[in-house]
Design brief:
single chain, mainly beta, 18-stranded antiparallel beta barrel, 51% strand, globular
């Protein structure tokens, strides 16, 4: 049985992957040598953009919580735990705010050890490839530009690609994703929206054991398009309740997680902004003890 990880969309940009096989989407967060297959004058179709990041890759400056005409974002995340390596990440965006390349570096190295390339065509993402040629994502759409299938390939034989996972998407009458199905994992995710088109519930279950259902509920109480409260349940029993507090810019400055046994854990974010209201520094701490520090250097067009 595989474990289901549900990451709220508001947290994706802060999710730091430490395993390159997990590097995608944020973490979705997430992401250069630009080939001719990139089209820099286009913008993504609105049917694609309006989907929640739980169901699609972060692809725009807005998805990453960035403001202004950002060209490049360099991120360095260090951890208080010496066993966790520092993460160096550089994201490149087109003039219209589309992610075109994401590079990962090792400490002290000038050249990236892994690069992801984002290939666009006709106002939509066609595929994601990388320099290691170990993985490729291909995206299929219908005639209304709705993403209907995402296929992830892995190269275990040098002469051919093999399908790791195929995920299909289903929509309601307003063209919002209400269900995704992963074939290999046999995992189903069903979503429910409020009148503002915000996801208020996600149900996740395996087709071979649908009774063992995980449910995540999202509550919106402020003007920000981010949930203030997230409740996770399994088999109708509450597992965790997470409460978020935002600053005036809409970013999380405090996260309180209350577990099933009623114990609470508080995580605090201390952020510094530039003149465009973009985060240049974020220190995450637990009871005053620093967990990690992310420093961001931003280049604008």
């Amino acid at each position: 049985m595989k474990t289901i990880f549900l990451i709220p969309s508001s947290e994706l940009k802060n999710y730091i992957p430490v395993n390159f096989r997990m590097v995608k989407a944020f973490c979705m967060f997430t992401f250069f040598l630009l080939g001719p297959s990139f089209l820099f004058s286009q913008e993504l179709d609105q049917v694609i953009v309006k989907q929640n990041l739980l169901f699609r890759n972060p692809l725009t400056t807005k998805d990453y919580g960035l403001h202004g005409n950002v060209k490049k974002l360099e991120k360095r995340t260090s951890f208080a735990d010496p066993k966790i390596s520092t993460v160096y990440e550089t994201l490149f965006f087109s003039g219209t705010g589309l992610l075109t390349k994401k590079a990962y570096y090792s400490e002290g190295e000038k050249e990236p050890n892994l690069i992801y390339y984002y290939h666009y065509n006709n106002n939509r993402l066609d595929s994601i490839t990388n320099t290691h040629h170990i993985e490729k994502e291909v995206f299929n759409y219908d005639d209304r530009n709705r993403l209907i299938k995402k296929i992830t390939y892995g190269k275990y034989d040098e002469t051919k690609d093999e399908i790791d996972e195929a995920e299909s998407f289903h929509y309601n009458s307003e063209n919002y994703i209400i269900k995704s199905v992963k074939d290999s994992a046999n995992l189903v995710m069903e979503s429910k929206y409020n009148k503002k088109k915000q996801i208020i519930q996600i149900k996740s279950y395996y087709t071979n054991n649908p009774e063992n259902m995980a449910v995540t509920e999202y509550q919106f109480q402020t003007l920000y398009d981010k949930p203030d409260v997230v409740i996770t349940k399994r088999n109708e029993k509450t597992q965790n309740t997470t409460i978020y507090k935002c600053d005036i810019k809409g970013n999380h400055i405090e996260t309180i997680t209350i577990s099933q046994n009623k114990t609470a854990n508080k995580i605090q974010n201390s952020m510094i902004y530039d003149q465009h209201s973009n985060i240049t520094s974020n220190i995450i701490s637990d009871k005053g003890n620093k967990i990690s520090e992310t420093v961001q250097k931003i280049e604008y067009y």
